[in-house]
Write a structure and sequence with these properties.
The chain is an alpha+beta fold and 165 residues long. The chain has 1 helix and 11 strands; from the N terminus they run H-E-E-E-E-E-E-E-E-E-E-E. The protein has one helix at 2-38; strands at 53-59, 69-79, 83-84, 86-93, 102-107, 112-115, 117-119, 123-128, 134-135, 140-149, 156-163. The longest helix is centred in the N-terminal third of the chain and has 37 residues, at 2-38. The radius of gyration is 27 Å and the shape is rod-shaped.
Length: 165
């Protein structure tokens, strides 16, 4: 009689464990489906951190720039993954531009720092490491830049992160 009772208890325990595993599987599948439907990133590809940080203008260059007038440019930085050693690349695009046409500075928290500019296919570019050394999930901050165009005209700009290994 004792053996039969233990066998029933064992079967009951096994059934309860199977039901618990099934319930956990259903909950996990439902959560996964909800995340996919909402478009929330699940896995972070460390080798492709281009989605780890978002840069956007709070204040950019005006449509037309005057000669030798410094324009303040404010960039918002939002972190979606832990990132270290990120540079901000700022490009000013226009026809027949040379390195002498644009000056770029960024504020490091205490002083304005000059950024070396170089020619690209479409214009002039400069890159610098912002004052914050790492951007984590949920980080929101601003970077202050000052752009001076030495040749008046209309220019387009591009802003993007560059990750250094």
């Amino acid at each position: 009689m004792d053996a039969e009772k233990r066998a029933r208890e064992c079967k009951t325990t096994v059934k309860m464990m199977l039901m618990a595993c099934f319930a956990i599987t259903i909950i996990a599948a439902s959560a996964f489906a909800a995340v996919v439907m909402l478009g929330i990133p699940i896995f972070q590809n460390i080798n492709a951190p281009e989605n780890a940080v978002e840069l956007s203008y709070i204040q950019g260059l005006p449509d037309y720039t005057a000669r030798d007038v410094p324009y303040d440019v404010t960039v918002q930085v939002v972190g979606y993954a832990m990132v270290r050693d990120m540079w901000i690349v700022y490009e000013v695009n226009g026809e027949n531009m040379s390195n002498a046409d644009v000056s770029l500075e960024y504020y490091d928290g205490t002083a304005w720092c000059n950024v070396s500019m170089y020619s690209t296919v479409t214009g002039i570019s400069g890159e610098f490491m912002p004052p914050v050394s790492s951007f984590g999930v949920g980080y929101v901050g601003t970077v202050l830049m000052r752009v001076t165009i030495h040749t008046p005209g209309s220019y387009s700009t591009e802003l993007y992160p560059m990750f250094v290994e």
